[in-house]
## 1
Amino acid sequence: MPNLKRQKTVQEMEEPVVNLDVKYNTVDTEPDVQRPLGREYPKARSQMPEKQLFEFAEYRPQEAEKIGYSNYSYWKSVWQNFLKNKAAVVMGCVFVLLFVFTFVASAIGKYDIHMAPDPQNRAYIEPNAEYWFGTNGIGQDYWAQVWYATRASILLAVLVSFGQVTLGVLIGLVWGYVRKLDRFFTELYNLIDNIPTIIYMTLIALMVGKSMLTMGIAMVGFGWLATARNVRNLVFMYRDREYNLASRCLGTKLHRILFRNIFPYLVSVIILRLALAIPGTIAYETTLTYLGLMDIMLPSLGNLLSAARAVFPRAAYTLWFPAAIVSIITITFYLVGNAFSDACDPRNHV
């Protein structure tokens, strides 16, 4: 019995001792650590005084409100998802550099775009050290012509595309949400869509004029159809959701319902439509110029491509340079548009 009692005493001594320091609010399980305050209790926390078990938690209203907030940012998440697509990021940088270079090219070029024509001595000179892109049919420097045309076509395409998408989104929101106007917009859509757009453009060019401003406004006036139809179908999906019904019952105004409740769900579709409209506008401008429906005194990509087709076997370089730039713009906006559209989709945010 004395041996057993001794073993039990040794076992109790080897057990860890819990030391709760009131001053530092720490629990120590090492038996040899000396603390200036507090008592030692081997096991039973139930035997500790209430002063050592509990501590008053101070309430701060500002910190309490922060608990309900989140650091999530929609556009920050969009940007992070977009950067994951390396191909789209690279092509986006290529397009930005291409557009910036259109302003730099005129400064580093040897000749101005308004160089006097010389069709006899300088017509269709192959690219060389003197003329980096060669010359055109009237002896002007093709380097200056190509880069000026690129800048003009990009600006025209961006402005027209923004106009088409903006008008299409506004009409599509009203068309899809207001039931009384559905019949009117449907008949208007059928009236414009069932007749080829080139007929409208021809009539406008003959009756009003062939200037870039006139044809640009005409392209906006007839280019909103596809965007409006797409937006209208999407609005039908969200119009009778519970939160929209609650907003109508509370008397929320129409424009707040459209732009606060429905419009955020359409961002990815709008971005994609805009990205595809820009190269589409350049291609459409090329077609109009080729058909003689746009009278552009200064060069554009469509104007250069139209002139190059007639002399392609003789001066193939006149087609290579503008065609390569149009291809780069088209591929860039296709990749960037799809990547940014996927990044804007809330379902892809984690």
Note: Strands lie at 18-21, 26-28, 40-41.
## 2
Amino acid sequence: MMTYSRCWLTALFSVAAALAVGCSSLKTPATADVAVSKAAVANAVGAGGVEYAPAEMTSARDKLELANKAMAAKDYKLARDLAAQAQADAKLAQGKANSAKAQAAADALQEDIRVLRAELERNL
């Protein structure tokens, strides 16, 4: 009987410890999350996100600003959530920008091929 109670007691302490660790992590500053999101926004700007995905860039910047305000208000859970959303929006903007650039390069290449074919046909 003593071993059975000891198992339950150990399980109870384990659950309590897990909850304590989980709750304490919500109280620590989300500085790293916000910094990663800031870098993602900067990368998206560098990739041309402002030109090719303005809506996503505006959303990313707005959410990053709100995350910074949440950090200042010490609402770290909200700051983490907003930082993650800002990072997702920035990555989407960067992806759209990269895709648009690749499409433009492919279109230019297709035009070059068309011109070369026209020259070949004219010379034959």
Note: The radius of gyration is 26 Å.
## 3
Amino acid sequence: MFNFFAIFTIVRFRIREFTSEYHYSILAPLTSNLLFVIIFSTIDRYYALSNENLSFMQFLIPGLIIMVVAQESFDNPSISIVNSKQIGSFDDFLVAPISRVEIFGAYLISQIFIGLFLGFLNFLILSFFISYNYFSLISFLYYLILVIVFFSSLGSLIGFLAYRWDTISTVSNFFVSPINFLSGTFFSINALPENIKYILLYNPYYYLITYFRDSFYVKNDVDYYLNLIIFIFVFSFLLITGYIFNRGYKVIK
């Protein structure tokens, strides 16, 4: 039987913590995205960049929204858990009448709310820089939630297993940032050499970004096979993280 009150308490605490640090958690990523848009829109005026029948800004902005949500979905739970370990407050979770899986569920639920808020905030601000004739809210929400679930699961897992900030920085610098930059966020992978493109075509995250971008501009028929692979990929990682939380770990030194 799930302890819904305890889960709700953790979710409320994490959302309150997120909003209280708005200068770091909200304004900083939004400012970074605005800087990207201003810089690249200036470049686009002189060099007329384009990607796959879209203007460069139309191609770029959905990628920026995904990137900032993915990065925050990893950073927020991983930093929160490691910080709780270091100051000793994670002990309160472990001795409370709540299982480790419920703790993970609370972090995941709170991060979904946080990620959706960031996604919609960036969408509202950055939409002033582009125009579109089609927008699918269902596709927007679906693929954004998949991104949040995957990266918040990864962030929760790293925070659960790690003791130091170095571990978080290593995963962020050598996995999260590269996969964001090399999965079609800033450019189409069709511009890459064939041997590199061949590898990236087997990256499920690339298709997730592509379908998220299509929700802005293109009313495509759903490719159920690819979407099933994407869902299985994300759901499998969710189960792996839940399993590790459930088995337990020496989380307090």
Note: The beta strands are 50-51, 54-55.
## 4
Amino acid sequence: MKISRRGALKITGVGILALTALPRMAFAARNSLRSLRTGVQPGGKTRLVIETATRPSYSLSYPANQLVVTLPNTAANTGISPKLASGTLVKSLAQAQSGDTLQIIVNLNKSIAPIQKSQIMVLEPNGDNDYRLVLDFVAGTGAATAAPSVAATTPAKKSTTPAKKYIIVVDAGHGGKDPGCIGRGGTREKDVVLSVAKKLKTKLDANGFQTYLTRGGDTYLKLAERAAIAERKKADLFISLHANANPSRKMKGFSIYTLSEKASDEEAKKLAEAENAADKIGVEGFTEFEENIRIALSSLQQHAVAEMSEEYATGCAKYFKKSSIEQQPGPDVRHAPFAVLRSTVPGALLELGHLSNAAEEKLLKSSAHQDKLVAAIVKSVKNYNFDV
């Protein structure tokens, strides 16, 4: 592939591109490449993740046995090493810079069909990642042209009743001998979240989802047992419901968390430690994860699950705010090592509010406010892209 009159492509062993004899670039690109990686998704899909410093614009084209991703106003980064997973359709990845436009050339084992918009995501930054353009694709035909087939900044999504019954596992936190936090008025976290969980199951089932509860009564469950239920049910999404407490009685509002080995802030770290400590109520201490779950939690799998979890959590925060549900000051999505989220199922932990705040304690135990929370969560689930 020719780049310019003075440039040439050079591919090294693991698919890293070196730009040789290129003229000095006289432009200041507004964006820059941060990383490239591939992975395997359910259904035999190959996933390509292109990480950039700012939100990317892009277009796609499909030469024979190639996918070319064109990123305008973006600078190449030849210092990165693409992370190529085994078992994908990708043989190698290369970068080609022309003026202020960067092309990512994906050399494939087989031609692929044009990628549908439903298989494309642009994810917001989280903890350790910047913006990510995520493309999922399978082998196919009808894509032997170099003309761009997609040009967009963010794929459109629809709010529809699912054509298939996606499986949702709703986890009401705490239970049994573990009451969770208790408000000044005596409201127990375990009771609030169980009430919300039951209402949420009813609404999700009515909207065409297949919903399971980790507990349908006042039952104590280990955190790993909750995660294992999502695994056994082959869930498409796991939602863990909680209510918060804070030393400051003035603190109020919802907060949403996803799994990360490194907490996004000190408060997230302390909250994870408090929630994880629920397992210590049992005489036998922490339950070890089943071997198959530990094996499945490879770094690649964790990264893919983290990206899908982040997408859901971001959407959930959006619908909470659209519903005029007050948010705790801070980022839309926080990250911490919650034991209950350690599984191969995408998921998020939702702190619905603060029982330590007198006004919010009254709200959380009111049926009308619980219905408001449930309606927002249902919207977030209906708008989540399960097919990625």
Note: The CA atoms of residues 171 and 240 lie 4 Å apart.
